[in-house]
Design a protein that fits this description.
The complex is a heterodimer.
Chain A lengths: L2 H4 L9 H4 L5 H5 L17 H24 L14 H8 L8 E4 L4 H8 L2 H8 L17 E2 L2 E3 L6 H11 L7 E6 L6 H13 L3 E7 L2 E2 L2 E2 L18 E6 L3 H18 L3 E6 L15 H9 L3 H5 L5 H21 L6
Chain B lengths: L2 H15 L4 E4 L16 H4 L4 E3 L4 H13 L4 E4 L10 H8 L2 H4 L8 E7 L24 E4 L6 H10 L4 E6 L21 E5 L4 H15 L3 E5 L2 E3 L3 H8 L4 E5 L8 H9 L5 E5 L10 H7 L3 H13 L2
Parallel strand pairs in B: 1-2, 1-3, 3-4, 4-6, 5-6, 7-8, 7-10, 10-11
Antiparallel strand pairs in B: 5-9
Classes of the chains: A alpha/beta, B alpha/beta.
Protein name (chain A): Pyruvate dehydrogenase E1 component alpha subunit
InterPro entries (chain A): DH_E1 (IPR001017), PDH_E1_Alpha_Subunit (IPR050642), THDP-binding (IPR029061)
Cofactor (chain A): thiamine diphosphate
Chain lengths: 335, 310
């Protein structure tokens, strides 16, 4: 597969976050292993393969979470982003993981994995284990790792992200906050648009429009245009409908570049599809609508572009297997 | 020194000492200096770090929380404490939760200052004492300053703790002198202890003086500064062996300060009674408002009633 032809060298730099990782001495001694350590986020790979690896990693983790739920090994709730992975990897890979800040919502696993690669910490967290990324305190929708945070309150994270952006503006950092079409009903979003514009916050508002809020379709809850919402606040807007992670990443790079250079907020609208249920088994959409959603699955087109996708899949699958095993072996968090 | 000056001085000192600190709120800039003049002079001295904000209480508390999370402590002034309901989600589900929920990986040094209380004729939505709705929120410390403590020192302690604080100030109290703890009536072997906080302290002190002068009832006033988490041990030790306690608060009755006092005192006192504000909104009529909020006469009468019970 002609992957290098698609990749635009230098367009999407691998984060130095990955380069910070030390290669274990054992790997250096063993000449049969690759020269550089293979990273879970594929920092050593060309762009298309890297974005694909991150997407399939997210997909496999979330499919496994739903399995674990059906096996009674998970409790509480979990919101998967199956179908929306292109947004997560596209936007996160446009960031500087060393300094930029990410705020995500209840549907945060994809964003989290793309930012951190901490699959084991995530699965253990959702399984309520002491080895979880928040020691079993936060669970699925309350994650914290370096400058990544998520919270389960719709819209409430928006002003917090504005504040984070302002606090680190002098360091050239950008904050990204992920919202959904369902969040458009929350007043906090509009207060945040106003505050971000008034104070010049370097914050990128990303709206993932999957046209459904839990079980309620967008046409019953959202008036007017989501794309046009931020412009009257003096906020530059980008919009995209395509579910291609490379295109999303390029667009996000442009948006992030603007936010960083101008010290101004930006509104990035991404039309997407939630292929899975809101949480578990609560999908009431008609079969035809679900079929339309599945037709926009971002994974199959990427497999046409990544020659060794099967090998990448196997690598990610074994990573998830080991993470689940390791999490299951860890003690339950009990305080 | 007046209460407003004590707080204002502390704000200046804190801004000078911590170059990351930001003060924000509605109409806080000079020459106005805030609706109650607490931030007067601050924006002139620290132009870049005193921010006047849109009328957007939820938004500004959220924004302040985000700044605090990323290393810039913030003191937020709510123009009227009543407006805190607009920021409830940010306080309860964000600022107060982050540290614990994120497994102690972060800290949120934010102070929210909220002028509460009536007796100014401001009516139903500008006279309330809403602090009880924020007491018992894990991760949040709620304090109420008063003129027998050191209002400025409370701000210093709150910021030093690097954790979310809600500080209740009182609109009427701003212009009163700071007397200090030594001025509180604490007779040996008191007949009655009045437990109270915030704006009711001055009325309790006046009632205690009348009780000893007119009725020869020795009355101690315990002014509780930290409301939540409730300092049970401290309150118990201040009540000592006294068997009669009256709890006085200005907010609506029930699920409040008196309830918390009673919980701390279960099995420790013989007689307990409680005074609170009305169980309906506070009227604009000044006279009517005075009739409803616990003042000197009502506190005195409650103490005499309790004393007569034995």
């Amino acid at each position: 597969m002609n992957e290098l032809a698609i990749r635009k060298d230098g367009d999407i730099p691998a984060s130095s976050f990955g380069e910070l990782k030390l290669v274990p001495p054992s790997a250096l001694q063993n000449l049969t292993l690759p020269q550089a350590e293979r990273t879970l986020l594929g920092f050593e790979l060309p762009t298309v393969a890297r974005l694909y690896q991150q997407m399939i990693l997210i997909r496999l983790v979330e499919e496994r979470l739903l399995e674990l739920f059906s096996q009674g090994l998970l409790f509480g709730t979990t919101h998967t982003s199956i179908g929306q992975e292109a947004n997560a990897v596209g936007v996160i890979n446009a960031l500087d993981r060393d300094r930029d800040i990410v705020w995500s919502n209840h549907r945060c696993h994809g964003h989290f994995i793309a930012y951190s690669g901490e699959v084991e910490g995530l699965i253990a967290e959702i399984m309520g284990r002491v080895t979880g990324i928040c020691g079993g305190r936060g669970g699925s929708q309350h994650l914290c790792f370096r400058n990544f945070h998520s919270n389960g309150i719709q819209g409430g994270i928006a002003p917090v992200a504005v504040g984070c952006a302002l606090a680190r503006k002098d360091e050239g950092a950008v904050a990204v906050v992920f919202l959904g079409d369902g969040t458009m009903g929350e007043g906090a979003v509009y207060e945040s648009l106003n505050l971000a514009s008034v104070f010049g916050a370097p914050v990128l508002f990303v709206v993932e429009d999957n046209e459904i809020a839990q079980t309620t379709p967008k046409n019953l809850t959202v008036s007017g245009s989501i794309i046009a919402r931020a412009e009257p606040f003096g906020i530059r807007t980008f919009a995209y409908d395509g579910n291609d992670p490379v295109e999303i990443c390029e667009l996000a790079q442009e948006a992030v570049g603007y936010v960083r250079a101008e010290g101004r907020p930006c509104w990035l609208y991404l039309r997407t599809e939630r292929i899975g249920p809101h949480s578990k088994g609560d999908d009431t959409r008609p079969a035809l609508r679900l079929e339309q959603a599945r037709a926009r699955d971002p994974i199959p087109p990427m497999r046409q572009r990544v020659a060794d996708f099967e090998e990448i899949d196997a690598f990610c699958r074994s990573t998830v297997d080991r993470a689940v095993e390791s999490a299951a072996a860890a003690a339950m968090a009990r305080g | 020194m007046r209460v407003v000056e004590s707080i204002n001085r502390a704000l200046h000192d804190l801004m000078e000492a911590d170059l990351q600190l930001v003060v924000m709120g509605e109409d806080v800039l000079d020459p106005y200096g805030g609706a109650f003049k607490v931030t007067k002079g601050l924006s002139t001295a620290y132009q870049d770090r005193v921010w006047t904000t849109p009328i957007s209480e939820g938004g500004i508390v959220g924004m302040a929380t985000g700044m605090a999370l990323k290393g810039r402590p913030v003191i937020v002034e709510l123009m009227f404490g009543d407006f805190i309901a607009l920021a409830a989600d940010q306080i309860i589900n964000h600022a107060a939760k982050f540290r614990w929920m994120y497994n102690d990986q972060v800290e949120v040094p934010i102070i929210i200052r909220a002028p509460m209380g009536g007796r100014r004729g401001y009516g139903p939505t500008h006279s309330q004492s809403l602090e009880k709705h924020f007491c018992g929120v894990p991760g949040l410390t709620v304090s109420a300053t008063h003129e027998y403590a050191d209002p400025g020192a409370l701000l210093h302690r709150a910021l030093a703790s690097r954790s979310p604080h809600l500080i209740i100030e009182n609109k009427v109290m701003y212009s009163r002198p700071v007397f200090g703890a030594a001025a509180l009536p604490r007779p040996p072997d008191a007949d009655i202890v009045i437990l109270t906080y915030g704006g009711c302290v001055e009325h309790a002190v006046a009632a205690a003086k009348k009780l000893v002068e007119e009725e020869e009832i020795a009355t101690t006033v315990v002014a509780v500064e930290q409301l939540s988490p409730f300092p049970c041990e401290d309150v118990l030790s201040q009540v000592g062996r006294c068997s009669r306690v009256v709890a006085v608060e200005e907010g609506s009755p029930g699920w409040g300060f008196a309830s918390e006092c009673a919980r701390a005192l279960i099995g420790r006192v013989r007689h307990f009674s409680a005074l609170a504000g009305p169980d309906h909104p506070i009227p604009s009529s000044r006279e009517w408002e005075d009739d409803l909020l616990p003042g000197v006469d009502a506190i005195q009468a409650a103490c005499i009633d309790l004393f007569k019970k034995g």
